[in-house]
Every structure is written in structure tokens, then in C-alpha cells.
Amino acid sequence: MALAGLPLSVFAIAVHFCLVFSSSSSPPVCPANGHRDRTAYHFQPAKNWQNGPVYYNGMYHLFYQYNPHGALWDVGNLSWGHSVSGDLVNWAALDNALDPTAPFDANGCASGSVTILPDGVPVVMYSGIDARRRQVQNVAFPKNPRDPLLREWTKPGYNPVIPVPADVSPDNFRDPTTAWLGSDGLWRFAISAVADGVGATLVYRSADFLRWERNAAPLHASRDAVMAECPDLFPVAEHGEDGLDLDASAIGGAGAGVRHVLKVSMPDTLEDYYMVGRYDDADDTFTVPPEDLEAHGDDYRRWRRIDHGHLYASKTFYDAGKKRRVLWAWVNESDSEADDVTKGWSGLQSFPRAVWLDEGGRQLVQWPVEEIETLRRKRGVLLGGNEVEAGGLREIGGIAGSQADVEVAFEIASLAGADRLDPDHLRDPDALCGENGAAVHGGIGPFGLLVMASGDLRERTAVFFRVFRLSHGYTVLMCTDLTRSTSRAGVYKPSHGGFVDIDIEKDRAISLRTLIDHSIVESFGGGGRTCMTARVYPEHVATGSSHLYVFNNASDAVKVSKLEAWELATASVNAGDDGLISYGGPVCAAQVQ
């Protein structure tokens, strides 16, 4: 995990975790803990600052970087928070798993991962900031491995298991990944470092998880990147949506039908980047395909984006119960630190996403996990018909606009009116969206959704598409325009942009799914090929309700061929232990309204 933010680890445990909902068929829609910006179904602690994942015998555990003493990031106060869930939606808080109590982590327990050993015992590998403020690698074990909730952890006195190497910067050596067993029977994990001045992802090997040796070659390195943190290496199937575990047959590179993904987080851009390639566990190296190397080079910042918006330090885990790979990420605030102190909390997790490889084999598809459907209550309707004329606006009625799941598909009758695009603009979709906002009329587009909108539309967040003509065909631009998301001063309100890799000339249609949860808006374009996360802080929610609209500022009408809009209930997220802490057997987490 990044020092400035990261989900640490989700992992599942052998406890039956049932969920008891209120008898009301339509629970009230209001932000948890009363604050208007507080989310209702995204993970965040009850208070203070936070910013990975594992599945173990049927229960999910989320360990996350946490400051238990305040709403701001503070190196000396970094702990590991710990919450558990049976469905990735409702969460119960446990006591901190790790606190900075030893010389090897005196200045903070930074990021790391959980690995399940062959005997079923979980082990934590984490970066500690020691008494001399050096980043060292430590292990921790459950105090009672039979405790299904893993409430207490012990840190052996022989830590650190990996001190800072002589050629590595002492403040740039962090974020160990989940470990995997290679075909030679040795454990491996990857870790971020600056070695001899070069940003690299290193690999360490061990026979016993205690004595580690560094591989001579890095997993991957980039002289164009001073530091790339929060690495994640995982296998993906070349065909189908099932996830793969980090075992030798999948991760080793020899298995047919398997590719590999290397993801890194860049602190200079606060963005996550990835490439689909091949991992070879004989020499522990990751190879980028020649065609992608030629197109993108070794600079991670030219690789594909996990998300084109406000999201960082993503981490995946394999959910064995549902045979899927799930991604989490940290989403920090974009208002001021003073606002965070006033609220008493800062940061949250994106809603968990299933991840798989698309048919083309070069990019990931991301989609909200199916458990979100358990929160669906009222269904919305599009008022005024399915065809939206040029300059038209159609409200989605019948649901609360501040807590919703909306999926819409648009049909395009003709591409003849598409505006031409200079190829130079392909390099910076953010700037292109900034120049061509939702209010700027175009040929084909903008069309999409207005979310978290006030009744007078003075505040609104627009998520939309534009189709452009290129010399060799067409391209689809997806934007999230935050410039009018709030009238509040001191809020970061950019335009996010990304191109959607679909064949619009063949399909003549494009889909958009958007999750709205008070101060976070997550959007998935083209069936999840392009994802975009945004933070919004509208003022109108203090005194009124938010509205949802379909809009079209193109030159011609656009048809809405599909609309599914749902109001979502409030999940129980760290509102209390709900009996989990005091009782180690089968438990129920009652939903708090």
C-alpha cells in the first residue's frame, strides 16, 4: 500500500455471517452518522482517517491503513484497522489488528498483505516505519489461529525479516504483496523500491516465510519512474470471467490460457496503471508484449489506467467462494483538510469490483460485485419517453438521487454528425473533457447522466459520452464533469476523461452504469472497460433532495434503449460490532438505519 493511502487486505474466515435487515421494505435514505457527505454503502470507518483484501473460509476481512487518533494522515499514528463481512456490503468493526508498538514499526504500520499458509494459518507481511524512520518489512501472526475473527495479532521480536538493502532508499521500500508459491516450492512476494536510483518492483523468495533472499533481477523496473508503489501481480484467464488464484499453475506462466497483470500506483500522479503481460517464475520477471512496449514504453504513466478518475492504491484478492478476482481501492477526499477535521473522518474504499480480461486480451473489465443488488429497493422510471431530443433533459423519477445504482444504454442512429478530432488530443482525455464539457453542444454527444443535481441545476455532476471522427474511424470519449458539482469553495472540481475501447461503428450503442452514494460517484462505461471515480460535495443536500437526469446536448436525438435505476438501502458499515466481537460462533449483523 502507499504511504499516503491504501486498502490493505481483504480476507475471508470460517464463520457463518448472516445479515438481518429491518422489516421496513423501503428503509430511509440518509447518510450514515448524519453528515451529508457520509456514504451509505461504501466502506469507511466510523471516524478518522483511512485508506487490502483476502478471502478465507467464507468470511471477508478488510485490513486497512488507519489513523485512530484523527482525521488526517499522520505517519507516527498509522495502524491497521480491521473489519469483517459476510457479503462485501455490510461490515462490522473489530479492534485494530496492528498498532505501532515496537522499534521496527515505532513510526507507523504502513501497508502490506495477508497470505494463507498451507496449514491454513494466515500471516501478515507489512512495511513498518522503524525508530530511525526507515521502511522495513515485518511479519505478524494471529495470537489464536483458532479464533475465527482473528481479533489479536502478535509481532515476533525477530522482526524485521527484511531490513533495508544497501542499494535501496530507506524511505522508498514498501508495500509487500500477497505471497505466492512458485513451481519450485519457494514463496515469493513483490515489493516497491527505489534501487540504485531506479523505480523498481523487486521480488523476494523464501522456503519458510521468515528468511528471504532478493532475486537478482527486478520483476519490472522503469528508469522513467522514480517510485512506483502499491504493486499487485495477479493471473487472469484469457477467456471467461472466472478469477484465478495465486497458485503455481496460474501464476507460474506455464499454464495455457493464462495471462498476468502487473499494476502499480504512481505517487506523482496519484493514479493506478497496469499492463497485461507474462510472468515467468523461473526468473521472476514480468514481460510486456512487444506491441504494447512499442506503444507505451517503460514509463508506467503511459500504461493503461485502472480508473480515469479519483482513485488510488488499488489491490485485488481472489474470492475462492465465488471464483472471482475482486478489486478495492482507496478514494480520498477532494475538499479541504479543514473540512475533514470538521467532519471527523477522511477517505473511503471504492465499492468492490469483479475484474476479468476482456475478449481482446489487453485490458481489464471491472464491474460492481453482484452483492450490491441486495441493497436494491425502489425502482426508478424515465419520465417523458425513451427518446431524448437535442438539448433535451429527462428526469429519472421515483427514487432518491443521492443513493442509487443506474444503468443506461444509448443507441446512436447515425455517426454522420460526429465531430472531427485532431489525433494530438488523444494524448490528454482529461483536457479534452475540460474543453468539451457537458454544456458544450456537439455532433454526437454529449449525452449521459446528470447526478447529484439540485432542483435548479445550479449544482450537478455530469457523466457522459462524445463520439469523435478520426482519420481511420471513430472513438468514444467518456467524461465526468465536476466543474458545477458544488458551489462550495475550496473543493477540487476537475474534469476526468478516458477513451472507451469499443467498436461504436459496429455496435451503434454504448452503456453507462453509475453508482451514486452521496459524496462518491463511480461510473463504468462500455460494460466496465472504462471506469471513472469522482468525489462530489454539493451544498443543496443540506436543505433539499438530489435529482437524477438523462441529458442530451448533441445535434440529434438519442434513444435510451435500456434504463435500470434503483434506489439503494443503507448498509451497516462499521456502525458497531453487532455481536461479532463478543461472540465467536455464527453471528448476525443487524442493519443500522
From TrEMBL:
InterPro entries: ConA-like_dom_sf, Fructan_Metab_Enzymes, Glyco_hydro_32, Glyco_hydro_32_C, Glyco_hydro_32_N, Glyco_hydro_beta-prop_sf. It is found in: Secreted, Cell wall. Residues 42-368 form the Glycosyl hydrolase family 32 N-terminal domain. It catalyses: Hydrolysis of terminal non-reducing beta-D-fructofuranoside residues in beta-D-fructofuranosides. Residues 1-25 form the signal peptide. Its EC number is 3.2.1.26. This is beta-fructofuranosidase.
